[in-house]
Amino acid sequence: MLTDHTTLVQFLIEERRRHPDASGDLNGLILDVALACKAIAKRVAAGALGGVLGSSENTNVQGEVQQKLDVVANDYFLRATEWGGHVAGMVSEELEEPYPLPVEYPRGKYLLMFDPLDGSSNIDVNVSVGSIFSIVMAASPGADPEPQDFLQPGSRQVCAGYAIYGPSTMLVLSVGTGVHAFTLDPNLGEFILTRQSIQIPETTKEFAINASNQRFWEPAVQRYVQECLAGRSGPRQKDFNMRWVASLVAETHRILTRGGVFLYPRDSREPVKPGRLRLLYEANPVAFLIEQAGGAASTGRKRVLDVVPSELHQRVSLIFGAREEVSRIEEYHEESYELTPTLPLYGTRGLFRTAAG
Ligand SMILES: O=P(O)(O)OC[C@H]1O[C@](O)(COP(=O)(O)O)[C@@H](O)[C@@H]1O
Ligand SMILES: [Mg+2]
Ligand SMILES: [Mg+2]
Predict the structure, then answer these.
(1) What is the ipTM of this complex?
(2) Is 91:70 a contact under the CB 8 Å cutoff?
(3) Max Cα distance, the chain (Å)
(4) What is the residue with the minimal CA distance to atom 1 of ligand 1?
(5) Where in the numbering of this chain does the Fructose-1-6-bisphosphatase class I N-terminal domain appear (predicted)?
């Protein structure tokens, strides 16, 4: 029986009771991830005193300058999870190739994919950041995985979650039985269950989008945002509020807490990149959590969890949150196809049509 004082360990034991054959590896891996998140939380909280503010000398595979904390957080994830025999392999936002497990450690049956520090542009301004993770089964348990083994659609995730390092540190996760939130008790060093079975309201009056990209958006997104901005006197007949934290974890947490809809849509800035966010370790885990909480997650054209990945660091258009809003945005995409089937930018064989949807 779960109560408001249940610890993460107790919660995981309770979940395992539903699967009498379970080996305990998934729980072991989740606890290792939770340990990494606690270590990162400490460094984030120390701020300038922890010596991790500012940029490092390096750029990552995405061509982005790594913050010092990106590097430190990546290291905590690797160190906490590589040794336990639960994982067969890992993919990180910060590493071009899958991480090769040291030879001395046993290979497990899960693959772990993570963004060790999300929203890094917020670190130096002391705004919430987080970590995101996704777990799938390895194709060959006990052996080193091939890179393509990581390219599984998000619907195959067995667990997804994030930690948010805000005024309090929270771990929010799902093992496929709803979404549950744990708050870190700083005295005990334990994650304590503080919200069970989170549900997102079907509708909302709050949206999130980086409006500085407006000139690059497709017609469907232009229309949706214009209608929100028109407020009570427009077709939506209600006033909307807008928020943008520039940290996917923080936006997801807000939507899981009070509802809303988030868009980081495909745009024409760099046509080869269908969106900004990374499929394997940003969009997929968020989409899994959102669906588990009764919301929806779409590329605008299809369900995110159905996208079959083709590359480890693939980017994707991501629209998620209140179910009614997401289906409205999908309809607008549908309609703009019907209206502009022959335009080179938006037609079936145009610039914006890719396998990723
Ligand atoms: O700078 P922009 O375009 O607003 O992008 C913000 C987005 O970039 C991200 O920060 C990317 O994450 P990283 O910090 O892990 O690279 C998302 O969390 C966020 O939604
Ligand atoms: Mg990120
Ligand atoms: Mg990151």
Answers:
(1) 0.92
(2) no
(3) 66
(4) 246
(5) 7-195
